[in-house]
Amino acid sequence: MSLSGLEQILFDIGCSGKARRNYAEQPEELLSRYALDENERRLIAEEDVAELFRRGLNPMLLMGFYMGLHGPRSMAEYLGKMPTLQSQLEAVQ
Fold it and tell me: CA-to-CA distance for 29 and 91, rounded, in angstroms?
């Protein structure tokens, strides 16, 4: 996993209107600019914030990415996709 590549693209999409527009218009072209493997590109394309979180990405970075794509009213949807502390504890038991 190329954590720095994932962090960079999530930051760019979350903070840059230009990156968001590029991603919306030509996602594969934007994804190809970053050091990502095929699985990482798929996780971003599917907006799998839960799996990205499990792989060590910061939840605030993920929130910025998700809300950058879906707007500020998507907070409840984002939170619904994220693992809870309870679900994390259950997974290790």
Answer: 36
What is the pTM (predicted TM-score) of this model? 0.83
Task: Tell me which long-range contacts 52-55 makes (C-beta under 8 A, separation of at least 24).
Answer: 52/6, 52/10, 53/82, 53/83, 54/83, 55/1, 55/3, 55/6
d(C-alpha 78, C-alpha 70), whole Å: 9
d(CA 49, CA 66): 8
Read off the pLDDT of residues 47-88 as tens digits, 9 standing for 90 and up. 999 999 999 999 999 999 999 999 989 999 999 999 875 555
64 burial (CB, 10 Å; 0-12 / 13-18 / 19+) is middle
CATH 1.10.700.10 is right for the domain spanning 3-92: yes
* DSSP for 44-74, written as a single string: HHTT-HHHHHHTT--HHHHHHHHHHHH-GGG
